[in-house]
Amino acid sequence: MIDTHIDIPWEEKTADGLPDWRKRDQADIAMREAERRFTIPKAEAGGLGAACLAAYTPQASLDNAGHDAAWRRARAMLEAMQEMVPLHVPGRAVLCRTAQEVRQTAEAGKVALVPVMENGYPLADDPSRIGHLARRYGVRYMTLTHNGHNLLADSAVVRQGREEAHGGLSALGREVIGEMNRHGVLVDVSHASRRTMMQAVEVSTVPVFASHSCVRALCDHPRNLDDGQLDALKASGGLIQITAMAPFLRRGGGGTLADFVEHVLYVTRRIGVEHVGISSDFDGGGGIEGWQDASETHHLPVALERAGLDGAEIRAICGGNMLRLMESAEKEIFESQT
């Protein structure tokens, strides 16, 4: 099973409102009794074979100070991911760059960890940073935005300022998507505005996906995807990874594993089982009744089976679809180099 969006614990901002780049010790990744919802012992207990770990950067000012702090933070978080395995969980987890490495790690009984980025804000106005993130740290996806517009695109949630800044993607955002395609970094449209998401589908040569979103027809939240967006995902060959964030599952919160399964079933009926997966958003606000931390991940396939899905469908939802998407991005790297 692959959980496609888990945050690593980190202080959000400094006292002056800039993204905090100071490293946080990750020793608790090795602890069963830890406050964080995802640890390696919890993953082992829950049968979770792989997790995408997000270097999350909160949106701050669009000036040199904000961009410099965001770039320092993103690299510090990715370095912390690289260090945590040999320091704290050697022999139990592996940092993976490819779908094949994920498969091999899971088959060896270890937990595969895939580095990813949440928010394109740290790129500032420099698309070449995508190549650095992919080569140096093995980053495999990046959300274009978080809560608030950046230089790349408009966000679904705006806490202050204009409703739109670019009318979707900026010219820079389109250039960045080209670089993401070239370096095998999947385009993640979670947090993006509707216009941004629909334009990303048109621009990207690799199927796009939403790493942690839910269905708007079942819960009218700006972070969720409507039927038109789901149809666009299908046309692109992409995925929506239903997430265990209660306010996205049920308006007003209180979402449960039963609600989670209803969102999964809605997508399978609307656009097909090959276009849906699972994510928790653990340690970023995720966690619902029935799936409170990684140790309860084994409840998901049981709940999906009870809902009438067969073994092949459950395997696709719980990881196969995401591995296929990663492979499509890896193929693009190969083709761009030949």
From TrEMBL:
Note the Gene3D superfamilies from the entry.
Metal-dependent hydrolases (3.20.20.140)
The record's InterPro entries line, in alphabetical order, gives: Metal_Hydrolase, Pept_M19
One family from Pfam that matches here is Peptidase_M19
Instruction: State the organism of origin.
Output: Bombella dulcis
Domain of life assignment? Bacteria
Name the chain's protein. Answer: Dipeptidase
